[in-house]
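FW: tagging you since you asked about this chain on Friday. Here's the raw sequence from the shared folder, copied in full. Didn't touch anything.
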Amino acid sequence: MKVIISCCGWFHARHAAFVAEKAGILSLYITTNLRYSKVSPKLTKKIPLIENIHAYGIKLTPYPLRQLTGDYLNRIKKAIFDELVSKYVDRNSRIFHGFTALQPKCYKKAKDFGMKTIIDWAIAHPQYNENILSEEYKLYRIQLRKEGKYWRERKSKEFAKADFIMVPSGFVKDTFIAMGGDKEKIIVNPFGVDLSMFYPKKKTDNKFRIIFATSLMPRRGIIYLLQAVKELRLKNSELLLVGGIRPEYEKVMKAVLHKYSGLFRYVKWTPHSELIDYYSNASIFVNPSLSEGSSYWVYEAMACGIPGIVTPNAGTVIRDGVEGYIFPIRNVQGLKEKILLLYENEEFRQHMGRNALETAKRMTWEAYGERLINSYKQICGDK
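HL: got it, structure written out here
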């Protein structure tokens, strides 16, 4: 059993490729980005140029055209990647595991060779995502540039033709089923966390600190967290926002942050290895996302021993009342109530933090890898 893993970007493909190599089944790992990769160079094919063109192309574009430019460059990037990668698809592999859709030539060639195909999709179904973002963008009074019928239909066709679709959470699976997907071919494999990088450290003060640690954009529901903090006005507390703003969202997110100025501390960027210090000094984390796959930072925060408050759309591994709380999307009142419960009861908050840590210990990248290899074996009918 051999597998080709293809990823235009980085995502969690590096973990999949690493465990596949460790199991002796990796034929080739093809990517545009090798950040944090531990895969052997002899089994890796890197195509970095198109990623750089995409990133710098957006940065050099005037703000009003950034989203349009980003969409256009992304399509070009995907098409070039698909063309290049298709040349590496051979008869010696039994599985083609592509991260994200829009690799039609690769999937077709793999099918022609009798290979099984997997599309790894890390976020909600595109149509579901578009529907919920259309609602949200109206609240921001900005125009959502929709993907367009051609690209939407192309993704739908690829999803339909793929033998399997691998997703990180039950939430993502539910969005595919809601959009008419075949539930029998959807494989749920949650992400993991590196416990050597994220673990509990002693908190250095007694301030009640709420942390939000991911890129700031409308989809992440940050405005509802800011409103909740504004209405609560808790004594000896702090809201800490850690994360950059993508160029296409820069104008709208800066306006949101300006509106709530004075209610939070903002750290624009920090090395990934230093996030542990921010997590460890937090009391709770909040993920108010409207549409997610299963955020890495949630696993990391749990591994540092802090409880969370999340929406069901965050695709989280948190269980309501065990490692934290779950509240409905866009529900500021519900979020306030959950924050207040953990603010007023330190002993219970610490209990939930311990539960979060124990759950994180079972949600490692090693565990992710074991589930992945088992899925490969089942797909190929191997014992």
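FW: The mean pLDDT is 90.
HL: agreed, and The chain has two domains: 3-192+365-380, 208-362.
FW: great, closing this out.
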